[in-house]
Amino acid sequence: MYFRVAIIITAMVLSSCSSWVYRYDIPQGNYLDKKGIDQLQVGMNKEQVKFILGSPVVVDSFNDDTWSYVYKLISGRDKEFDIDKRLILKFTNDKLVSATGDYPLSDKFNIPFNASVPLEVTLENANVDVNISESDAGVTETTEVTETETEVDTSTDSDDTDN
Which Gene3D superfamilies does the record match to this protein (predicted)? Predict the structure, then answer.
């Protein structure tokens, strides 16, 4: 009798210790960080995207122009820590045209890659002389611009780091 009670108590004590067993996290797919996502821009070719994000987990068998980056983390602790994220990229003529999914895109995503960016030039204290002269053929205007100070703003924000 005592032997049966001892076995039942031992089984109950051991089953309560099952939460002490270490369960490890299982990551699957492409882990994409914000730094890589922020580098994406419309107009990049497939090689440039592959260099930034790595090879996609899934390439559509019927449409080679659709790449899927899938990341899934199964947590060993609790289901509330599980992660399931997707990023789907679409290409046309080997150029990136759209990105959809669970990752937020940067503000510069819709700026075409390698697009010329105009420099902001401000002219301060510029002297402008306008000479109007009449001739037999009509009125001609001559404009002469002399710059005394020119300021070119080429600074970029390189301190955009999230800590």
Answer: 3.30.1450.10
Residues 26-70: pLDDT tens digits? 888 888 888 999 999 999 999 999 999 999 988 888 888 999 999
Annotation: CATH topology of 23-115: Beta-lactamase Inhibitory Protein; Chain:B, domain 1 (3.30.1450)
- For residues 70 and 57, the answer to whether their CB atoms sit within 8 Å is yes
Nearest to 67 by CA among 83, 48, 82: 48
Cβ neighbours for 124, distance < 8 A, ≥ 6 positions apart: 149, 150, 151
Rg (alpha carbons) of the chain, rounded to whole number: 32
| 55, two tokens | 């090879």
Amino acid at 135: S
Tell me the residue length of the chain.
163
